[in-house]
Amino acid sequence: MSHRLTPSTCLLLAATLSGCASMTAPSATGAQGSTAKPAVLAAPSPSTPPRPSAVAAVVAAAASAVAADAGSPELRPYDKLITTDARTQDGLFKLHTIKNKLYFEIPKALLDKPLLMVATATAVPASVDHVGRALHQEVVRFSLKNNRVYLQSISHAFVSDPSRPIAPAVQGSQRDAILTALQVESYGKDGAPVIEVSRLFLSEVGDFSARTALRATGLDSNRSYIERSKAFPASLRIDAVHTYGFASAPVLPGMPAMPTQPPRSGSVDVAYNIVQLPETPMRPRLMDDRVGFFGLSRLDFGTAEHGSKRERLISRWRLEKKDPAAPMSEPVKPIVWYIDKATPAWLVPHVKKGVEAWNVAFEAAGFKNAVQARSYPSKDEDPEFDPDDVRYSVIRWVPSAIANAYGPHLNDPRSGEILNANVVIYHNIMQLQRDWYVTQAGAADRRAQVLPLPDDLMGALVGYVVTHEVGHSLGFPHNMKASSLYPVDKLRDAEWLRTMGHVPSIMDYSRFNYLVQPEDKIDPALLIPRVGPYDIFATRWGYTPIPTADTPEAELPTLNAWLREQDDKPWLRFNTPRPVSDFGETAEAVGDADAVTATTLGLKNLRRIVKQLPAMAIKRGQDDRTLEELYAASWSQWTNELGHVLAIVGGYDSRNKHGDQAGATSSPVPRVQQVRAVKLLSEQLLSTPTWLLEPAVTERLRPFEWESRLLQVQRNMLRGLLNPGRTARLQAQEAAQGAARAYRVDQLLADLRSAIFNAPAVGSSLLQRNLQRAYLDVLIERLGSTQDPAKAVLRAELKTLKPLFAARAATGDRLARAHWDELFDTTQRALDPRAASAAAPAGLTVVLRPGFAEAEATDFCWPAHQHP
Length: 868
Ligand SMILES: [Zn+2]
Description:
Blueprint (H helix, E strand, L loop, with lengths): L54 H14 L9 H4 L5 E3 L4 E5 L2 E5 L9 E9 L9 E13 L2 E6 L4 E2 L7 H6 L5 E10 L5 E4 L1 H5 L8 H4 L1 E4 L5 E8 L2 E12 L18 E12 L18 E6 L8 E6 L20 E5 L8 H9 L2 H6 L6 E5 L17 E6 L6 E2 L2 E3 L6 E4 L1 E4 L2 H13 L13 H19 L20 H7 L32 H11 L12 H8 L1 H4 L26 H23 L7 H22 L5 E3 L11 E3 L2 H16 L8 H4 L6 H17 L2 H14 L7 H13 L8 H18 L7 H19 L4 H18 L4 H4 L12 H5 L12
Bound molecules: zinc ion.
């Protein structure tokens, strides 16, 4: 079995994708993050290649060019090249297929126009990667020069007001790269160049390649071909099959290991989309990091400011009112998601509900029916519909063992306009939802005490996943702070839960309300997160039109005024951009305004749930796999909840403020709260949690595993408590507040000493002795690092422990004496400078630090459990 039970809260897959990517990383790709290039404004190329005005001139010019370039094929008359054998499609470009060759006929009007080119993996070798993986995207142009068409990437890294003298230099410092050159073979009647493009889709042009994603060695063109091509009015789609060689067994974390030997090569289907960017870019809205939006950034050299100015635009859909004067209007073009035909029929209504849950937020921004979910239309309803056409956004249902979901989107890098946003839901998300719901709501909701969960409940859980993913597709990143902004005592109050929910944002990694006790008699529908006050606020801030402003800059006073609503309503606030160990930015938390109270209640429920597991999961005629899965999920829940408490020690409460908002941006957690947190850890982690080792469960599983797992969690948490970052923060708090007011490192050590060595039953059990030994190792590990301001305190603690061990070694039975004697010897050796290096184990890895930085660095939304 390979359940991962590391007490980190964010065990996510290391792929580059999507909505869960860091919002702070400027990315030309908007969502995919597969290139790190900052994006934006397409200034027209200063050197538009000369274009002949008539076919005669084209051919004449071509003749001389061809003469000068003897290696190039001669221009052929159009009808000799595009013969009657050609299969021609009309669309953004004309596509001609002749035998196995693909030709583009590029209308002259589209030469030099910015186009978005995207490559996506649509079918992958089993166990190697996952479907829907975005490989690369870039803004490109096709330019004609001397009978060649050059595919160039367009850089948007720098911009400048074109009227300023610096403008040509700005353009000169981001010369567009030529990705490939293709010979013109003929010209259409209107002078449109015809080029053979098969090579563009059968080799690795620029960064358009699946090699990195597949961890492959090389592309074999002999085993690669163009499968099909489609021309749509505003886009093209070319599907190719690429075959790669693999150096070694490529297995993506989170994928079950394949029973057979991994292949030495594998084929991948790559879909290329070439999309026309809107004629008029949408007016951008400038980003403010006090409210969460994905964004794009650019460096503007053309402002009156000293130096360059980094400007960031939010990602959002173009919503315009049908009736601009009305306070509430339908949009000219609603945001529509089409529900994949592969979606199980019984889930379709829940998926639709999950999408349209966002309308409440858009109504606050003045739009009615802004967000819609539809089934695939019939040919009569929409003859042009094709889920491959990027004009249509699709909620895809993907058969994969990965228990996850994600929501990548395509942006116009000039304006931040979201052009397309597919949401991908993996079938196995249902198992993850089951595991969470059972271990979080299994005490308060009787439906979660019997398996399988009823369809309407599972439907609501999937609907919740869809709403979260659609949130990413609307431009919203995670808001880990949200769950800590409600008073914890409100989270068992039915009235509050009805109006406010248990978390202000569905974009937090807050799951199901695990604080609610069975005796609270709360309607279980209220245990599931939904679009909350923060989401409504962010939608209003990002999407409400500001007709009085003519420029993005002119919107700023209004936007700033709207933001100040956060002053009085803390639950409208967003993450702090620079993580400062905010205890409220932990993942998987409910009620982390006071995690001690939240965890106390949560663990009360978890005790009941673990007891319920054998009755619900052991079934006649079945193996114990479900029991094992749910038991592992219970451990995850236990470590997650303890992790939120751990974050209080040496933690801060932070708030992002701008210049016009007075006061400090962060304050240390008061000493009394830190003492409470360590007390809870002493009781729930350092005293053996015998309830978790429920014999009715463990007797059905491998007997030796759980005790050692417990020790591993304890050791990791102790490392987390004493990691150098945390002790440094504790010392900083001491320096700022004074020794009398702060919770000091020596007090933390004394509290741990008392919990681990001086508790009444200490020394009596093997598990306690193992913990004592592990704690001593952790302390000694810390002495191994040389530049550690806490070293003196840690060393002093070892000196305090030594006589304690000596005294204990003189009493008790033979085993106990041996134990204390061994601890004494180890301490003695560690304190001896001659033996210091030998005593220090290598590696000070800190396993546990839940929070913002880790959470935002991940790519998927839903931590995956690995199943055997
Ligand atoms: Zn997410």
